[in-house]
Design brief:
The complex is a heterodimer. Helix content of chain A is 57%, strand content 19%. By secondary structure, chain A is of the alpha+beta class. In chain A, the strands form two sheets. In chain A, strands 2-3-8-5-7-6 form a six-stranded mixed β-barrel, surrounded by four helices. Chain A has a two-stranded antiparallel ribbon with strand order 11-12. In chain A, helix 2 packs across helix 12. The radius of gyration of chain A is 31 Å and the shape is elongated. The relative contact order of chain A is 0.18. By secondary structure, chain B is of the alpha/beta class. In chain B, strand 4 and strand 5 form a beta hairpin. Chain B has seven helices and ten strands. In chain B, the strands form two sheets. Chain B has a six-stranded mixed beta sheet with strand order 6-7-8-3-9-10, sandwiched between helices. The longest helix of chain B is centred in the last third of the chain and has 17 residues. The chains are: A alpha+beta, B alpha/beta.
Chain lengths: 408, 231
Amino acid sequence: MILKLAWRNIWRVKSRSFVVIGAVTIGIWAVLFLVGYMLGTVNTLIKNSIENQVSHLQVHHNDFKKDREVKFFMDDVSSSLEQIRTDGTVKGATSRTLVNGMITAPKGVRGVQIKGIDPGGEASVTSLDDKIVEGSYFDEKTKNPIIIGQELAEKLNIALRKKVVLTFQDVEGEMTYAAFRIIGFYKTHNSTLDELFVYIPQSKLNDLIGLEGSAHEIAILLDDLEKADAKRDQWQGAFDEAAQPYLVETYREIAPDINLYDSQMSISITIIMSIIMLALIFGIINTMLMAVMDRYRELGMLMSIGMNKIRVFSMIMLETIMLSLVALPIGLFAGWATIAYTGMYGIDLSNYADGLNQFGMSEIIYPSLTGDIYLQLAVMVVTTAILAAIYPAYKAIKLKPVEAIRKL
Amino acid sequence: MSVIKTKDITKIYQETTIPVNALNGVDLEIKKGEFTAIVGPSGSGKTTLLNIIGGLDRPTSGYIEIGGKDLSQLNDNQLIDFRKDNIGFVFQAYNLIPVLTAKENVEFVMLLQGVSTQERDDRVLELLKAVGIEEKANNRPMELSGGQQQRVAVARALAPKPTFILADEPTANLDSKSTEDLLDLMLRLNKEEDMTFVFSTHDQRVINKARRVITLVDGKISTDEYQNQPA
């Protein structure tokens, strides 16, 4: 009977109930959309970072991370690479020779990181070949080819097929230089890195710095990001066993900013959820207090005829929870539908592309949510309703029947 | 056998700086089956006395016993339970639960008492028949006239099989016909079920039908007379 009474009570003043239901629905929808959007942003960031820069795993000489000097290279990289490529979880693996240097063009000079790459292997890991926006990827035709970022080309004010000179240190610490012809411009979603990285064939760079069959980095792309930790442990163990001084790291260890984004995102999500739920609490308290005050006489009558305080308290609690439970599926569905639609077609932020690209983000954001977020939110909404109901329910049981009856 | 017994009841309201003596030593004994009207001018203490007899308020001093139970021994929660099982209320403004049907209103207190479904159904039917509105069982209060609502209120008051029924100006909002019908109903229930009725009223028609009339003046019983002895 209390259930029936509570259910009917919430429909007594329909407009008031619909305001609460609407507020809770919009609150749920807003939380889902905001969380989905933020997660989509972080996912895009991580995806771009993995695809363009760090891959899932990287192997370096133990000392390379501390001091990125040319001398900290890995010997006989091809056999390690072969072994890694035989693993079924590996989608692609490649080695790179890395040196810092200067690029000199007729109208400018910039500091760059020169990446000596194996064109085939690199394409399997970073899809650099797909990011060429002008010109072409490496081929056999051009002697000393170089691919630079479109952003860098604009800064250097240089066109395709023009020559640039790279200057850097060899393995002995001697300065060396060579001329390269630009065969292509690439563009990723990270304009900062597009200005920094230039790509030349690894064999050429190795010749110039005096490394034969060696490299500074092995980059590995797995079929599943979640396997990164397990594979790191496996290969680290193998290198340790072979007494090779190599360090295997996951993308999170290589790019700690990803962790920062992740943790910042979690904090932001918690803050947003708390603010919205807090606003809902006050909205619900206000409405339920009005409902209690409107029924002051009736509640007094109910207590007069024998409805005890526990039942009155339960009835007000139930009314509030029921209102939220009506709103919950509507809000969840609206949120899910919005996330499903925008997750499929994306949210186009092309107008802000320049700013986003500087942070390594795409201009199209695909919001996404996992099932546990829906569950967490549902629990939060019910908890919020319970918390919000306590004060009005308390007010209801504090009324004195005799005072309420006096108003009859 | 006494249903209600009060001894030297006083009630002082201290809501402002000046205390108001609403009751000044009321001694009263109402026996089972009595049909009693408490009358008096406004401010004479009728409602205060009814509230105290109904366990809705506590006296400042004095002793009150309902069905042999000393009410001063009960805390607020126990008083609610006591009211549920022992006192039937009929209010001036009917005060039915607007979202429940007539049947559900009558059934409500029995549900609080934990009466079984079968017993509830039987009793509701019997009571609605007794008050003559069984055909309105599934109507909500707003679909009923004032007289019909008050009949439902009487049925609700009778439902828990109380020790007595307390009615605060039950005819104040009714027209003459409805007043007549309600009084006949209460008198019939009083006669047939030996139900004790205590009500406050200003209505001379009600006073005329009462068998005992207690007049309060300035918080004291000024007269206590029996009239219209049952046939």
